[in-house]
Design goal:
The protein is an alpha/beta fold. It has 11 helices and 13 strands. The strands form 4 sheets. The protein has a 7-stranded parallel β-sheet with strand order 3-2-1-4-5-6-11, with helices on both faces. The model has no long low-confidence stretch (mean pLDDT about 100). 2'deoxy-thymidine-5'-diphospho-alpha-D-glucose binds next to α6 and β8.
């Protein structure tokens, strides 16, 4: 199977490529990645020399057309992915997430190639902090940020291309991922690398916001389950019942570093900050038989801390610029 992975030098895409090369020896993988600040070829790690790497943008229609023509399936991870950045400058989010997805969709339409669109639970907006309600595939779209609204726009393009043009596509909407190779701008790697540097963790606002954490390997296993066995035209929600408040996560990280759980700083809140995400993944579990392997969040966190301790060469070059950027917004 010839697999074209967009955004394969980013956090989830690079883990996907590594897992694919190791677990599916028959797969011939091409990565298309623009290598923005968020992309890093070294994230392909030990499989780098077993993958064809093309540096370029998903908005480049000619480049995309040629690569899609040579693929059996396109797995579309490429995106601008960070909410905080989208609040400072939404422009690249519209270009990559909307125009880029449109460009890839037009190519898969021309060449009749199977397409999987990787999206986020943030398209559904947020849930009240109190209560048991969870997102389902029929929850109405209600995105809050420039990031999530451009991801919602990209999902709607995919749905329209399925219905109007018969494109063979599936969509997945996943909750918050953690694991190796996540950029230090994101919540968990930022706190872990702060703690390695002896700096207190930083909590936005009161820290009561809840995220539904899933290990990146479980996300990627679910993506393969959908490509292998999912029904074309369907949307699958991916989540592993990993709800935790940001405060809980910071306390757990402090404890993993042998510190007082409550030794952290409150910093400026994110404008429009979504309160709570929670995924009902029963469709994925029941139809496709997917089950997460990482069911203990604390031990997954401990392994992630270990990975950042052992891979300082990978994250250190980005750290100072990320902290300088956060300093400008009081975070
Ligand atoms: P990331 O920011 O770590 O990686 C994004 C990758 O896309 C980078 O390698 C970057 O260089 C590349 N890229 C950006 N613009 C591009 C362009 N115009 N052309 C080609 N490549 C481009 O993001 P991530 O966290 O790995 O997220 C990957 C996908 O998964 C995104 O679509 C995101 O919306 C989705 N998602 C992420 C999470 C999460 O928790 N991180 C959860 C659910 C869904
Ligand atoms: O739900 C899926 C989404 O999860 C993905 O679509 C996004 O691409 C991904 O970035 C993530 O979005 P979040 O905004 O939830 O992730 P982030 O890591 O930026 O923040 C997680 C929570 O932690 C959020 O409530 C904000 C808070 N936070 C973040 C940082 C960076 C802090 O309290 N302190 C921080 O320093």
């Amino acid at each position: 199977m010839r697999v074209l992975v967009t955004g394969g030098a980013g956090f989830i895409g690079a883990n996907f490529v590594q897992q694919t090369v190791v677990e599916r020896p028959g797969a011939v993988v091409t990565v298309l990645d623009a290598l923005t600040y968020a992309g890093d070829r070294s994230s392909l790690g030990p499989v780098a020399d077993r993958v064809r790497f093309v540096q370029g943008s998903i908005t480049d229609a000619e480049l995309v057309d040629g690569l899609v023509a040579d693929a059996d399936v396109v797995v579309h991870f490429a995106a601008e992915s960070h909410n905080d950045n989208s609040l400072v400058d939404p422009s690249p989010f519209v270009q990559t997430n909307v125009v880029g997805t449109f460009t890839v969709l037009e190519a898969v339409r021309r060449h009749g190639v199977r397409f999987h669109h990787v999206s986020t639970d943030e398209v559904y907006g947020d849930l009240p902090l109190e209560g048991e309600e969870r997102f389902t595939p029929s929850t109405p779209y209600n995105p809050s940020s420039p990031y999530s609204s451009t991801k919602a726009g990209s999902d709607l393009l995919v749905r329209a291309w399925v219905r109007s043009f018969g494109v063979e596509a599936t969509i997945s909407n996943c909750s918050n991922n953690y694991g190796p190779y996540q950029h230090v701008e994101k919540f968990i790697p930022r706190q872990v690398t702060n703690l390695i540097d002896g700096v207190r963790p930083r909590l936005y606002g009161a820290g009561l916001n809840v995220r539904d954490w899933i290990h990146v390997h479980d996300h990627n296993a679910a993506v393969w389950a959908i490509i292998d066995r999912g029904r074309v035209g369907e949307t699958y929600l991916i989540g592993a019942d990993g709800e935790a408040s940001n405060l809980d996560v910071v306390r757990a990280l402090n404890e993993l570093f042998g510190r007082d759980g409550d030794d952290f700083d409150h910093v400026a809140d994110r404008p429009g900050h979504d309160l709570r995400y929670a995924i009902d993944a029963s469709k994925l579990r029941e139809e496709l038989g997917w089950v997460p392997a990482f069911t203990d969040f604390r031990s997954g966190l401990a392994a992630t801390v270990e990975w950042y301790r052992e891979n300082e060469d990978w994250w250190r070059p980005a750290k100072a610029a990320v902290e300088a950027k956060y300093a400008r917004t009081g975070q």
